[in-house]
Amino acid sequence: MKRIVSIILILLGVCIDVHAQKGLAIQSAFDELAVKKNVTEVVMGAGRLKKFHLSFFHSLEIKNPSANEQQRIEALLQTDAEQAILHKEYAGHKLYELPERKGMHYYIFYRCSGQSLTLIYIEGKANLKQIESQFLKREK
Amino acid sequence: MKQHDLSYWEAMAERYFLAETTEKEEAQLRKFLCSSEAQDSRFDEIKATMSYLQVSRPKRNVSVRLPLKAIAVAACLFIAMFLGWYQYQQYNISSVRIAGEDTETDASVVMQKQMAEMFNPIDPNDR
After folding, report:
1. Which of A80, A117, B9, B41 could form an S-S bond across to A65 if both were Cys, CB 3.0 to 4.6 Å?
2. Do B65 and B95 reside in the same domain of the chain?
């Protein structure tokens, strides 16, 4: 019986662990803002991202973000930035690479142009160069 | 088990018939009756009574344990199936939601547009 209870507990533990973005501050932004009228949320799993060598994509695009929304997201980003191993910032764009785990890379992208704000969380085996080349190439 | 002489066990058998023994004592008595020391004919009656009661007692423990085990195994299977289903959903998920409502928009197109924007300078007209 003890063995069975242990198996149940392990399975439940795995259930809890499979949530993406676990432990990141930006998770709150996805939870709080996704239901707002001016927000578009995109979620994609590994099955649809194979060709990009990614396993998870989650984004929020806010049209005409309010100052509050922008500040909230930037504050959450700042929290996650503390654990980033790479931080790039240029003209309205921010990019954070989080520590690699078991060959998986984790990235947070942020872009704010004034008229729209985009927050993206991605994870997968592709490194930053591969991601950049894939998406720049596709736009041409 | 503590060593006792036969008269001790004989007295306990008598107390057993008078329903004065505790469960612990009955367990000890049962153990003693299985030993070689209990070959004496003085213990035939108690042996017969105890074995009859043992055999005729309803097997409550067995009937309770079996369903519990079955429920636990079923729970494990259910959780494993749920986990498989959840992983499958996560693996194949592809959705675009506006204001929390699902739309027909192709998630792949939106994703590629958003990612391309991330690597390109912001259009001055967009400011």
Report:
1. A117
2. yes
